Amino acid sequence: MKERLLLKSETIPIIPKHVRFEFNEVRKEWVLLAPERALYPDKIAIAVLKKCDGKVSIQMIGKELAEIYKAPVEKIIEDIIVMLQDLADKGFLKEC
Amino acid sequence: MLKKLEAPLAILGEISHRCPLSCAYCSNPIELIEKNKELDTDTWLRIIDEAADLGIHQIHFSGGEPTVRKDLEQMVEHAHKRKLYTNLITSAVLLTRERLEKLKKLGLEHVQVSFQDSENENANRIGNFKGGHEKKLEIAKLVREFDMPLTINAVMHRQNLHHLDDMIKMSVDLDADRLEVANVQYYGWALKNRAAFMPTKNQLEASMEIVEKARKDLKGILVIDYVLPDYYAKRPKPCMGGWGRQFLNISPEGNVLPCHAAETIKSFKFDNVKDKSLSWIWENSEPFNKFRGTDWMPSPCKTCDRREIDWGGCRCQALALTGDINAVDPTCEFSPLHEKIFGSAAEESSNEAPEFIYRLYSNKEVEPIKK
User: Fold this and answer.
1) pLDDT tens digit string along A45-76?
2) 3-state class of A22 per DSSP?
3) CB contact, 8 Å: B219 with chain A?
4) pLDDT-wise least confident of A77-81, B80-84, B137-141, B346-350
5) Which chain B positions have a beta carbon within 8 Å of A24's beta carbon?
6) Do the Cβ atoms of A23 and A29 come closer than 8 Å?
7) Do B55 and A6 touch (CB under 8 A)?
8) How far is the C-alpha of B273 from the C-alpha of B278, rounded, in Å?
9) A35 vs B147, B151, B175: nearest CB
């Protein structure tokens, strides 16, 4: 049996092949397409998901966003983990 | 792009009503569409183009059994090229390794396989198809071997709910991503067999406990979708996320429907893709506009704080069970008929289950595999 992926700040997240995070040109909005699901991420989630390319850790993503949004880095990392854990539990996010 | 309305999110393409199984709970209409009335390949490719131009995200190829169509490959390939997320909803019994591999190469992104039970003999008895269960297991494994996400659709009822635990275990063993525990809905053919399928209250209570525990234990391993059957619910489900809000369904002959059971509403004339464009139909088709939003709602729905959550429930069910298409969905505890219908369900499920009336594509009844 596979194991639940528990995200930590050093995890390098990646959107798996069967999930598509893309900009719909007709609707003019970002969407996360997964099996029988379409999710519309908010502005912050979009910024996070754009970084889930299998190259950087959650910690790095947090640092970058903390600068952009002028917020404490620990809090941002905590929020990112909560958001991404929910996606991981649905199978819409993996680790690299 | 549409001016007034949000575009739908997904299309359910019922590309054929033909099916090798004879499930007695089939929710397709009593009158099935014959093969020679099915839309041709070019029309389906045009529908896919129109859907992509509207900004629709997903297409579910369904039926009947969608793999009976030899041009499924062309449809999947075209949908993928137009960036629609492609999903195959199948009984799997007609699929082969070669065909599945080809579909994957052409851009198929997800497969949902239906199971009648976790146990061989009972599963094949319910679908009335010898060797069906074994074949389903084989194809489900191949889906994962080809690295596609897998959903198990388990149609549950009085005659298999005692295997729910095993069904969950089977889904984990198959490395499925999601298990949809689908309680039988009594539309179309299924209504003939309601007494054979209606679960008892005890069965339902036990199944809810099992699901709740499994959801905790299997968090991050298996997603379990479970919806309480209407007859035992206190509030209606927001059928299709609300009438004409997110989904459209295309019948094998090209009628565009707000849900797959909508043709049970005989007073409606549905528009057809052969005469009108998808965007015209979505915006202007009379059946779509009739129950869109909240203006049409009867009291007490109109002032209910759940009116934009439940969206008035299911119109087909309101018609089937009350005779009035505008009535409150009797699933709702505020319907004057709720008690009566709840009572009838409990009574039905306490009697001995009758034999199934199997469905066959020819609409004839068939000899059942004996218990």
Assistant:
1) 999 999 999 999 999 999 999 999 899 999 99
2) strand
3) yes
4) B346-350
5) 55, 57
6) yes
7) no
8) 7
9) B151
